[in-house]
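To: structure desk
From: M.T.
Subject: fold request, one chain
Message: Could you run this one when you get a chance? Sequence is below, nothing fancy, just the single chain.
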Amino acid sequence: MRRRQRGRAPPHCRCPRSPRSARPHGRSHRTSRASPGPRYCVQPPRSPWRGERRALRIATRSARIAGPAPGGAVSTESSAAPPAESGPLEGLRVLDLSQGITGPYATKLFADYGAEVTKIEHPGRGDVSRRFGPFPGDEPHRERSGMFLELNTGKRSVTLNLKTASGRAILLRLAEQADLAVESFRPGTLERLRLGDPALREANPALSLVRISNFGQDGPYRDFAADDMLAYAMGGVLSITLMEGREPVKLGIYAPLFLAGGVVAAYAFGALTGGRRSGHGERADISLMEVLAGSMDRGGTNLLSTQYTGALGHGIHSIGSVALPSGVYPCKDGYFHINASIRWWDRLCRLLGRPELIDDPRYTERLDDPTLAPEIDALFLPWALSKTKREAMLEAQAHGLGATAIYTMEDLSSDPHVRGRGYFQSIEHPAAGRLEYFGPPFTLHGTPVQLRRAPLLGEHTVEVLSGLGYSREQIVQLRQRNIV
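Reply: Done. Structure tokens follow.
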């Protein structure tokens, strides 16, 4: 039998740049590098037997998007998300292969500012954050996870099983069209899937790739199992709160991962900009440990301090080195924070309604003595306990003192300043209903940003595959074989 010439598409290939035919050829191939079209043809599943063909036709005709089915199941077809408003990143295409918090938060920022972000999720399971709470009524549901809804606004969801040849081939087709890809697999995973740097560069030499891991893509700690606490500790940040007689404390749960996500977004944009200048995609190797070490709460300053003086550079005390109130204080409905200094003694006296103490030598001659703090606290605490946290904040600010209420989320959502700036945006979601979300972290007066909802699992799979030239019957077959 005569063999087909390698590299050429058989005459019955369905690839967009190949002659049309009734059936796909069942083999992957590459077209010429000079061809502007896709260089990969996805290997379709086997041809169905007669009874299957009828079932596939029925399934294809009846497939309709109706949101998530009971129990969290998602129908087989997609309804397009609302079109993105024109934003500063309009026209940029991002392939999101990340999971959890850091990578999805970085790509969310791209989506919120107008980029087309396509999120790749595993069929049936989806992103791990779909299993994180909070959930309404504390009942887990993959389409109602508050974590997922917040981290994936404005994205498209495509389900792909990357352990299959067809799933990998579809991903490479998507990579051909993308400007930037972000992944957070364990180091070596992309290579084991045969989707590493050589494959991605061959698919799209201009694609920039951001790789997020706990300790980087190389080095002796590369394969260490880790969570945010481990990266937080090994990044040196935890030591900053170390005090004699007490173990160190960390920020609230997941806080370092969200903060790292903002840094990753900046790194990703830098890689993208560099790649566009050179015409060759950049590769960014991001270690969460290094991100936290270099960006969290004076870590770099403490590194220099250690070299200058030999001091460990840890121990941030909530008790000031002067007698004036500095730190967190209780009030009628919670807590507030105030930071007074010696030069503001007169302002503090007026705030407390005790102007006669401004020139009292019992205080003015000892304001730099921390042992005076209990006496001044005896003056300050009765005033604080008579105020709500918002009253304490506003009155202290009116007297020129730096003070703030310690807000809960309920306090923040009802704050008139935040409301007046339009920071919160209301979004309707087919499974979760209408909810309020934090808006983008900065405003652009020339191009206002309107958030779009997070996707249902696999909501845009049919739409995206159809754009790649797949027929409805092929897509149903791929779904039945758990490839999409």
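Reply (cont.): The two ends are 35 Å apart (CA to CA). Let me know if you need anything else for the meeting.
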